[in-house]
Amino acid sequence: MEYTFIIYEKSEGVATLTLNRPEALNAFSKDVVKEALDALEDAKMDDSVRVVVLTGAGEKAFSAGADIKTMKGTNALKARELSLMGESLCLAIENHPKPVIAAINGYALGGGLEVSMACDFRIASETARVGQTEINIGLIPGWGGTQRLTRLIGMTKAKELIFTGKIIEAKTAEQLGILNMVVPAGDFKAAVRQFALDLAGKAPVALRVAKALMNKGAEISLDAALALEREGFGIVSSTEDLQEGVNAFTEKRKPTFKGQ
Ligand code: CAA
Fold first, then answer.
1. Tally of CA atoms within 13 A in the half-sphere of 220 that contains its CB
2. What pLDDT does 241 receive?
3. Which residue, among 119, 116, 117, has the nearest Cα to 93 in the 3D structure?
4. 114, 126, 160, 229: which one is catalytic?
5. Residue 18 and residue 240: Cα distance in Å, rounded?
6. Atom of ligand 1 nearest to the CA of 145
7. Is 134 a catalytic residue?
8. Which of ligand 1's atoms lies nearest the C-alpha of 114?
9. How far apart are alpha carbons 82 and 43 in whole angstroms?
10. Alpha-carbon distance 134 to 44, whole Å?
11. CA atoms within 13 A on the CB side of 244
């Protein structure tokens, strides 16, 4: 598929999906979401891809959220469709078999922050700013923000952010637990690349099973989650990659994992 609203590149096991509407601060239109879903599917099916990086074009924004201009004269049905559209993108990321890193290069607001929260990691430039700003236009987060932000940082601070709609600095977001890491602007791209390459070198099946167990386990009872973990542990233990890891350990060398 030819892409117009995203840039999709692959190298050294890392697929990079860049939201490409810098003139609108990479706001998500239907076309952006459609193309992003297609690229995520490609990354899922391509065995050479081990890690996905999601970022925004330009210096200013990761994404300023859903396209506000399409909300003029909206109605309940259209808004429900918009919510479903964002949800489908967030779920495609959350249920993706490979780790997905949000590389937050600028504003991550509204739906932009929500999409990043569906990712497994959020690495931000120190110039980034984040917020659930929907309340400022008389709206609420509709792409999982009321749920994922609360799960990520707890009710107290999630309510503060969602009710006030304030935009906070990257360092503050890191302290709240929204971000994994904040990097000086000049080091940002290299730091994201290194983080992605390190993950690309890990055992793919173990990563896939750990991701699924952690995401699903957070929604069910501990007893049921532990039963799932036991089964997952069994499956991962049957991989060639485990034997490679054990051999590499005893032979004091770096393992080469194949995803088998
Ligand atoms: N949708 C559509 N266009 C957007 C946009 C958005 N979410 N955010 C910014 N833009 C556009 C602006 O309209 C502007 O375009 P024009 O030049 O054609 O007017 C361009 O991007 C640059 O933006 P600004 O001129 O506003 O840039 P700024 O530096 O003055 O301000 C900003 C930056 C603080 C991020 C400001 O643009 C802003 O507040 N944007 C809206 C952020 C927001 O509220 N997002 C939530 C959207 S609702 C949502 O996401 C619902 C949900 O849960 C799914």
1. 13
2. 98
3. 119
4. 114
5. 34
6. 53
7. yes
8. 53
9. 24
10. 31
11. 17
> How do strand 168-169 and strand 129-131 relate by DSSP bridges?
antiparallel
> In one letter, which amino acid is 217?
G
Tokens of 131: 């917020």
Taking the whole predicted model, whether its pTM rises above 0.90 is answered as: yes
- The ligand 1 site (C-beta within 6 Å) comprises 24-25, 27, 64-69, 86, 107, 109-111, 114, 133-134, 136-137, 139, 141-143, 145
Pocket test for ligand 1, best of 21, 23, 31, 68 (most atoms within 8 A of CB): 68
* Residue minimizing CA distance to atom 38 of ligand 1: 64
pLDDT in tens, 159-208: 999 999 999 999 999 999 999 999 999 999 999 999 999 999 999 999 99
Structure tokens at 135: 């309340």
Kindly give the number of the ligand 1 atom that is closest to the alpha carbon of 24.
21
Residue 230's pLDDT is what? 98
Confidence band of 1 (pLDDT split at 50, 70, 90):
confident
Phi, psi dihedral angles at 102 (to 5 degrees): -90, 120
Q: Is 94 a catalytic residue?
A: no
Could you tell me what percent of the chain has a pLDDT over 90? Answer: 100
Place of tokens 């709206």: 139
Determine the longest span between alpha carbons in the chain, in angstroms. Answer: 66
Average pLDDT, the chain: 97
Are the C-beta atoms of 195 and 121 separated by less than 8 Å? yes
Beta-bridge mates of residue 199: none
Counting from 1 in the atom list of ligand 1, the atom nearest the Cα of 68 is 1
SS3 117: helix
Please identify which of the residues 59, 134, 231, 244 carries the catalytic annotation.
134
